[in-house]
Amino acid sequence: MTPVARKRLVNESPTGPFAEGYVFPWPEAAVPPFGAMTCCISPGEECEPDQHNQHEIAFIYRGDGQIIVGGEAWHVSQGDVVFIPRNVEHTFSNADPDRDFAFFSVWWPREEPHDNADDG
């Protein structure tokens, strides 16, 4: 069994206004209880508003941007970590005219529950 799965995040670049890539464990691993993806937003672009029945944490690893969570805007930059509560609308944007804005997002549970019961 492979003990480590490797994915380079520093070379992700969008081919359009927004690019995303889901991150999965190696083929022999059990399905994890969380989902994970990399996201990259081109200069001056934004992603569509999102809302789901899962908690989410975004780790900003490149650039400067803005996140709007529940109608409140926050400036974020490389090194910031943002928690997004379940069922709260949120969106990310990149106001930088010259540089991509990128983050790694983890959410749980992996599959969106169809009820509103709190799962941690």
TrEMBL record:
Coiled coil: none annotated. Residues 39-106 form the Cupin type-2 domain. It comes from the Bacteria. It holds the Pfam family Cupin_2. PANTHER family: LIGAND BINDING DOMAIN PROTEIN, PUTATIVE (AFU_ORTHOLOGUE AFUA_6G14370)-RELATED, QUERCETIN 2,3-DIOXYGENASE-RELATED. This is Cupin domain-containing protein. It comes from Micromonospora citrea.
